[in-house]
Design goal:
The structure holds two protein chains of two kinds.
Chain A lengths: L1 H7 L1 H26 L14 H12 L2 H11 L6 H25 L8 H4 L6 H24 L9 H11 L2 H24 L12 H28 L6 H28 L8 H10 L3 H26 L2 H28 L20 H24 L23
Chain B lengths: L1 H36 L6
The chains are: A mainly alpha, B mainly alpha.
Chain lengths: 411, 43
Amino acid sequence: MVLRTIRDNPFWAWVAFLAVVIALGLFAALQVFTRGLVATNLSDLAPWGLWIVVDLSTIALSAGAFSLSALAHLLGRDELKPIARVAVFIGLLGYGGAMLCLLLDIGRPERFWHGWVYWNVHSMLWEVTMCITFYFAVLLLEVFPMVVDLPFLARFRWLNRFGHRIHHLAPLLAVAGMGLSLLHQSSLGGTYGVVAGRASLFRATMPLLFIVSAVAGGMAFSVQMTLIVQWLGRRILVPRQILFQVGQIAGAVLLVYLYMRFWDSTAGSYGYVPGRSEADTALTTGAFGLVFWGWEIILGGVVAAVLLIAARIRQSIAMLMIGAALTVAGIIANRWNTTMLAFTQPLATNPALTDPVVTRYFPNWIEWAAALGIVATLTLLFSLGMHFLPAFRGGAPAGQEAGGDSWSLTT
Amino acid sequence: MEFNHLIGNIASILLYVGLPFLPMLLVAIQVGRWHDANRHLEP
């Protein structure tokens, strides 16, 4: 019976595939919870690895939630509300995924609540922890009205009334979300930027680079996911002109980011800067060079920005799609390079040691399986949300009813 | 030796950049075609 459902329905086959990947991830997570971080390739010299790359990437790709909500609810761009809804849903899942990564990464998962109770106000990570917690609550409130519209919840009328009351608070939630996001998206860069012992990270521009790249990546990811859901679900969630508009904004922000990155790399490394010059050489010519030039700068930067901007002029969805996908790939490559480069370069010491303290790091199978499990969990929840939530029913073909009154395609 | 380096570099670019890019391009073309064929679904 179950097998026949999976065979006959591609959606449930997709769900079954994701469930298998999640099961593998759970097995890997169990290894970490029972044996500790010794089960991974992480060490004192390379304490952050693949999970932090996933954490930073999901948070960056969730930035569409606050930026599109701010445009829609605060700047009065009502036409952006349909894509802001998709972005908010992605944001909720993205932050949930980031918290799962951190639960694995902190080494003592039973102490996850310590940051909330034992305040260390001098730590960037404490500020990030608090902001992410509060912003996750904001995202839950933003998604709540979409969930209470599920048909089987219709009998709980008080829940429905409560949901719609929260829906009216959208502008307030957008203000709170923007404040919290601007704080922690930049503080994530700041967390890296204050690490004086890691020469490739220690720079004042990291918060700015993180926040600007996240806005471009988050908007592009929202466009990309919307296009994929529309294609696979055979329905329209967001009018194409809105997608072109958002794509163009993302392309422009990406250009601003590339400009900032150019000056950061050239002016910041003017002359010889101990440690940083070596790290820059490793990034641009060494093992990282191909990912840096190929994915981060050329395809994920320049080509992506040009395609996102030109897509609206050429009215080409294919250009928009590939531009958005390349932007997303570029942001992930950036977070990968930033983390991996930092922890595989010699640790700066003062005075300098004859033998620099250096380590090699590559994630082992437990790290890969756990990371894939988290990505599969997010993909599963996203697929279920897009499949069942009335807010994403959209304009369907052949006589199917379009979205309800409160979830219009145009506002 | 130089020729071998060149071949190695081209192979690396094709493997690490070209190969992942290809499915992205193919999916984008399909997504674009579907949207162009279904403009009538636009509100």
